[in-house]
Design a protein that fits this description.
Blueprint lengths: L2 H10 L4 E7 L2 E2 L4 E14 L5 E13 L12 H14 L7 E8 L2 E13 L3 E7 L8 H4 L21
Parallel strand pairs: 1-7, 4-5
Antiparallel strand pairs: 1-2, 3-4, 5-6, 6-7
Amino acid sequence: MKTSEFLKLLEIHKNKSLLFEYLPGKFVGANYHITEVKNITVDVVDCGAGTDFWKETIIQLWESPVEKDKTVFMTALKALGILNKVDRMKTMARDAEVKFEYSNDNFHTAQLFVNDFSYNDQKLILNLAVKKTDCKAKETCGVAEPEMAPAQGACAPGSGCC
């Protein structure tokens, strides 16, 4: 999800509670705060000597231990207010992918991307996920993709695929 899409989503659902699902059925606690917004420029050289460049917006979520019993979630409007204030100080790249940095005692620190979202009358829920690392220079470096096993029942005897 691009930063512009996220900001628009918050505007559309401004009166709803904003929840983050970091694993299926596991939500960032209602005691979360937005503690940092990073405007990141990524400038890379991969293992095949290829170069790339892009921007990311990384929003850090932190659960306050002082408010661990809190049950009311931040509204999308409050989050939008925080991000608009940040944007006035350090302009966010609207076409940058937005990610969320989060951890807790049972989940390692990770930068999570928005996999999907859902909403109802009271809540806007962002479903977050981790992207696996990958080699961007497989072809250049001669790294073969693993062969996929044929679908069960797809091999006829004598077809040469089994």
